[in-house]
Structures are given as structure tokens and as C-alpha cells.
């Protein structure tokens, strides 16, 4: 009897040692994903995974030792190898963009499969049929956003309408954005800001190209400056000056604000462990939550200065029915003073809306323009055809205007093809099922997170011939001639679709089309030493280009044309 008990004890001890080693192995795997950087992080995650692992293996009342609760059950019709605590997160680390990794998984497991991301089950869809079902039949079921660190710390406790959960506040703000802020009429009324800023941008590039002919220009830097100036100009009538050596570093506070926005965009795309394992937020492994708080403070200080300055300039007589000339005036007119909006103060709502418009309106627009230029540089034939169309339609005696774009179908096709290959958000913003539903005949339980792989869907060989090739002509043939980006052609939805579709797509398209048209009209573009552009993709929410774009610009119009800008 004693011998049997000793043997049982040895087995139990051996299992305990094995499980402890497994917890530590899991910790090492997590650290190896590149999310954590120092010994303290590794110690903390090792300790916590051991504690959570014991809970995982000893759930009171669990029908089977080691089984997961139903809401975090292992993936069905998905990849094997889910680890304790982290699930499949270890498969998504590394230098490869997540959209590509998930695309490879869809090749192996089908257009709709499940993953376990920490404590959450996720449904990944990548075919237009499955995506259409999610954004039509099940659009309301998937209308909410999960609670994540970005919304909490960078989105004013989810007051930013793009990050807020589905409910009365989100419906109120979405209606305000689509019917008051981002209407075609308001965007047309602010066209002078776009046109003026793009003119200054082209004039600045001409000055640099003319000063030192055949010198490579860091175009990525200036494109980012352009889109940032356009969005803050539309938002609050602000802008930062161009300079030859450094971009807009005239005022230290302005410079810190611009850098903080860039940092916020970066932090929006990082992996925060507590987003998938909420109970680990207190550890702040990686320090990202602290960085979000610090970055948000810098941005908030500037936004509050803008609001208070505008309130002082408007005066009491302008409240209520003021027909504002920019987004800030519109917001201050729409939301009465001292009014709360579903629990948020007026000031919080205004700042949160400004914050999300800056973040979503600058980076994604810049990245689209950079990718378009990169594709053109690697396709001289396409660039020559775009310039031929420009010369025959607009000529060289005047600058192309927004009203000309509709008469430049090849240029429009270049932009469409760029968005197909490099959508502003390769993965649509995460959604969460608020009730049980069915996708592709499969049961999707409430609480499941939805990941839509737009990048994979728009490279589907069953829809697009030679899907990885840059062929603008495809949007001029009979099959895709009427394809647009408004969210109803489900084979092509670069701005997503449904209730959570990007409301700012009209703004972004206006900027990209006019800026690209002016560059194609105004310059012959080439690469330094005639080399191909490196098309390496980076990590982030907008699929950034890894290597900054450098271009040699040769003016193709008269000196007077550039001086007229």
C-alpha cells in the first residue's frame, strides 16, 4: 500500500515538474515572439504563466483536467499547436505582417477558420463570400469593438467613435460623423486646404530638385508631412512649415505633438498582452500601456489648447448655429456647451474625435500615396501611360484640379490597384460578436472576435487574374470597370464595409488622387542609380513600407508653373 502511494506521489511530482517546465517554456516562447525585451519581463511572464497554468489545469468542476472553459476552447478547423495561456499567439509573431501569416493559414485551413488568441476565440475570414456574410447578414452581430488598450488609453476611454463599443454613444457619434463632419459637401467646402497644401508640397519638391539636380529626395518624409498638414488644417486651421533640413521643427511643442501622433500610431499597432489576457494588464509587460498614457498626455495638451483657443476666438455669440469652416468649428457647433454625450463631457468628445481623425486621416493616406509612387517607379510603362493621359487630358499649361480626376480613368485605376494590393488596413479593425450567429454554416458563439483579412481577400486568384501583379488596366476592363471602394463590391473593399466601414474614405481618396496627379504631371520620377524600389512591408495597422522611399525628381513643366503655386 505504501509502495503504491509512493509511486503515485512520484508520478504526481513528475507531472508537476513537467508542467512547471511547460509554463516556463511557454514564457520563453512568448518572449521570443519579440513582445518583451528584458529579464524583468521574462521573470514576470514566467511567474504569471505558472500561476495561471495551475488554474488552467485545476479548474474546479471542470469536466476534464486540463480542459479549457467553453469561451476559450481550442480552435476547430484551424491550426494545431495552441499553447496554454497564449493559444496561437506564438504563430503570429516575427517580422512577417500578420495579414500574410493569416493568409498562409487560410490556404491551409480554408477561408474561415478559428484561432485562440490568449483568452479569446477568434474567427478569421478571408473570402469575399464569408466577408459579405459577416458584413450583411451578421453586420449587427459583429458591430461592436472589443475592449482594448488602444481605446482605453489613446481613445479617451473609448470616446473615440472608431474604437467605442456598439451602443447608443457609438450610434450617436457615427451619425454625427457621417451626416455632419465627413459629408461630401463639407469636404468640398474644405477643398482649398487640400489644393493649397498640395501646391506648397509640389513647390517645395521643385525647389529641392532644382537646387541640386539628380539628388535623391526622401519623399516618404515629405508625403507624411503633407498628409499631416492637410488633416490638421481641415481639423483646426493649423499647419507646420516646410524646411529643407527638417520638417516643421519651428516650435518645440509643435514638434513634440507631431512626434507624439506618430508614436500613437505605432502604439496602436503593437501587441499588448492584456488585450488577449486581460488579467495581465497590471504587469504592463513591454511598457506599452505607460507609453500610451505618456503619449496621450502630450496629444491631449495640444488638442485642449486648440479647443480653448477656438472657444475664445468664437465668443458667446457663435454658439449653436455657427456654420464652421473646419471640423473643430463644426464639433463646437453641433455639441452644445456644458452638454454631456452619453456620459462623456463635451470637451472629451471633441478631443476624442479630433484625436481619431488625426490618427486615421494622416498615416493611412500617406502610406497609400507612398505605395502608389513605389508601384509606379517599379512599373515605368504604367507611369508613362499615366503621364500620357495627363498630358492629353489636362496638358502642361495649367495644373490638374480635383474636377479633372473624373476624366483621368487610368490614374483612378492606378489608385484602385494600389488600394487592392496595399489596403489602408490589411486587417479590418477587430470586431466582437454580441450574440451567437452562423458564418458559412458554422456556429459562432457570442464573444468571438472577428478578424477580416482584406489583404488576402483582394489577392484571391479566383477573382483577380495574376493577383500579385500591379495591373491598373484590370479596373478598365469589362469585369471590374464598375468596381468601386464604397463597400458594396465585396470582392474589393479596401475601406471595409458595413456599420464599421471607414467614414473618412472620401477624404483620403481626394488627397491621394490629387497629390498623385500633381506629382505625375509635374515631375519625371526615377530611383537613385535606377534601382528597383524595395517593396518590403513593415508591421503596423496601415501596412507601412519598411524602407523609406527615395526618388529623383526632374521637373517637366515650366518654371512659371511651379512659381504659380
UniProtKB/TrEMBL annotation:
GO cellular component annotations of the record: membrane
Keyword annotations from UniProtKB, A to Z: Heme, Iron, Metal-binding, Monooxygenase, Oxidoreductase
Membrane topology, from the record: Single-pass membrane protein
Catalytic activity, as annotated: genkwanin + reduced [NADPH--hemoprotein reductase] + O2 = scutellarein 7-methyl ether + oxidized [NADPH--hemoprotein reductase] + H2O; apigenin 4',7-dimethyl ether + reduced [NADPH--hemoprotein reductase] + O2 = ladanein + oxidized [NADPH--hemoprotein reductase] + H2O + H(+); (2S)-sakuranetin + reduced [NADPH--hemoprotein reductase] + O2 = (2S)-7-methylcarthamidin + oxidized [NADPH--hemoprotein reductase] + H2O + H(+); (2S)-naringenin 4',7-dimethyl ether + reduced [NADPH--hemoprotein reductase] + O2 = (2S)-carthamidin-4',7-dimethyl ether + oxidized [NADPH--hemoprotein reductase] + H2O + H(+)
Subcellular location: Membrane
Residues annotated as signal peptide: none
Entries under PROSITE patterns matching the protein: CYTOCHROME_P450 (PS00086)
GO BP field: terpene biosynthetic process
An annotated Gene Ontology molecular function: iron ion binding
Cofactor(s) recorded in Swiss-Prot or TrEMBL: heme
Pfam families (alphabetical): p450
InterPro entries noted in UniProt: Cyt_P450, Cyt_P450_CS, Cyt_P450_E_grp-I, Cyt_P450_sf, MFS_trans_sf, Plant_Cytochrome_P450_Monoox
Pathway listed: Flavonoid metabolism
UniProt-annotated binding residues for heme: 502
Family: Belongs to the major facilitator superfamily. Phosphate:H(+) symporter (TC 2.A.1.9) family.
Protein name: Flavonoid-6-hydroxylase
Species annotation: Striga hermonthica (Purple witchweed)
Amino acid at each position: 500500500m505504501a509502495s503504491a502511494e509512493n509511486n503515485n506521489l512520484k508520478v504526481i511530482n513528475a507531472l508537476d515538474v513537467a508542467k512547471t517546465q511547460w509554463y516556463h517554456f511557454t514564457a520563453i516562447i512568448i518572449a521570443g515572439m519579440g513582445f518583451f525585451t528584458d529579464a524583468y519581463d521574462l521573470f514576470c511572464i514566467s511567474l504569471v504563466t505558472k500561476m495561471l497554468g495551475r488554474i488552467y489545469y485545476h479548474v474546479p468542476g471542470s469536466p476534464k483536467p486540463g480542459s479549457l472553459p467553453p469561451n476559450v476552447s481550442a480552435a476547430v478547423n484551424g491550426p494545431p499547436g495552441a499553447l496554454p495561456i497564449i493559444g496561437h499567439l506564438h504563430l503570429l509573431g516575427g517580422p512577417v505582417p500578420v495579414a500574410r501569416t493569416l493568409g498562409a493559414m487560410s490556404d491551409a485551413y480554408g477561408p474561415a477558420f478559428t484561432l485562440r488568441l490568449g483568452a479569446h476565440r477568434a474567427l478569421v475570414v478571408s473570402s469575399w463570400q464569408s466577408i459579405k456574410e459577416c458584413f450583411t447578414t451578421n453586420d449587427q452581430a459583429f458591430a461592436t469593438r472589443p475592449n482594448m488598450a488602444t481605446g482605453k488609453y489613446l481613445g479617451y476611454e473609448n470616446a473615440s467613435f472608431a474604437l467605442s463599443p456598439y451602443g447608443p454613444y457609438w450610434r450617436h457619434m457615427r451619425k454625427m460623423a457621417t451626416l455632419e463632419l465627413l459629408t461630401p459637401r463639407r469636404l468640398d467646402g474644405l477643398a482649398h486646404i487640400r489644393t493649397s497644401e498640395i501646391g506648397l508640397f509640389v513647390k517645395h519638391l521643385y525647389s529641392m530638385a532644382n537646387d541640386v539636380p539628380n539628388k535623391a529626395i526622401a519623399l516618404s518624409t515629405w508625403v507624411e508631412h503633407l498628409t499631416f498638414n492637410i488633416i490638421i488644417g481641415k481639423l483646426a486651421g493649423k499647419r507646420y512649415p516646410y524646411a529643407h533640413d527638417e520638417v516643421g521643427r519651428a516650435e518645440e511643442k509643435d514638434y513634440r505633438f507631431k512626434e507624439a501622433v506618430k508614436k500613437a500610431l505605432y502604439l496602436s499597432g503593437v501587441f499588448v498582452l492584456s488585450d488577449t489576457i486581460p488579467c495581465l494588464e497590471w504587469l504592463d509587460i513591454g511598457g506599452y500601456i505607460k507609453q500610451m498614457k505618456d503619449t496621450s498626455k502630450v496629444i491631449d495638451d495640444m488638442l485642449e489648447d486648440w479647443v480653448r483657443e477656438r472657444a475664445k476666438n468664437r465668443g458667446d455669440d457663435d454658439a449653436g448655429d455657427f456654420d464652421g469652416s473646419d471640423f473643430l468649428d463644426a464639433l463646437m457647433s453641433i455639441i452644445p456647451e456644458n452638454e454631456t454625450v452619453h456620459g462623456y463631457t463635451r470637451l472629451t468628445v471633441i478631443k476624442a474625435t479630433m484625436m481619431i481623425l488625426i490618427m486615421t486621416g494622416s498615416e493611412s493616406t500617406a502610406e497609400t500615396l507612398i505605395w502608389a509612387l513605389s508601384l509606379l517607379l517599379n512599373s515605368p510603362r504604367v507611369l508613362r501611360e499615366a503621364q500620357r493621359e495627363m498630358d492629353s487630358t489636362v496638358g502642361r499649361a495649367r495644373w490638374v484640379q480635383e474636377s479633372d480626376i473624373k476624366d483621368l480613368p487610368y490614374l483612378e485605376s492606378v489608385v484602385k490597384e494600389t488600394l487592392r494590393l496595399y489596403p489602408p488596413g490589411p486587417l479590418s479593425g477587430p470586431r466582437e460578436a454580441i450574440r451567437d450567429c452562423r458564418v458559412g454554416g458554422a456556429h459562432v458563439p457570442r464573444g468571438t472576435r472577428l478578424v477580416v483579412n482584406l489583404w488576402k481577400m483582394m489577392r484571391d486568384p479566383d477573382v483577380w487574374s495574376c493577383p500579385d501583379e500591379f495591373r491598373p488596366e484590370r479596373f478598365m476592363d469589362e469585369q471590374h470597370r464598375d468596381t468601386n471602394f464604397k463597400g458594396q463590391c465585396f470582392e474589393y473593399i479596401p475601406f471595409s464595409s458595413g456599420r464599421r466601414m471607414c467614414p473618412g474614405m472620401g477624404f483620403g481618396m481626394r488627397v491621394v488622387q490629387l497629390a498623385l496627379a500633381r506629382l505625375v504631371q509635374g515631375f519625371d520620377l526615377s530611383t537613385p542609380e535606377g534601382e528597383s524600389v524595395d517593396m518590403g512591408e513593415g508591421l503596423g495597422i496601415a501596412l507601412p513600407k519598411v524602407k523609406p522611399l527615395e526618388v529623383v525628381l526632374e521637373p517637366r513643366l515650366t518654371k512659371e508653373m511651379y512659381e504659380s503655386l
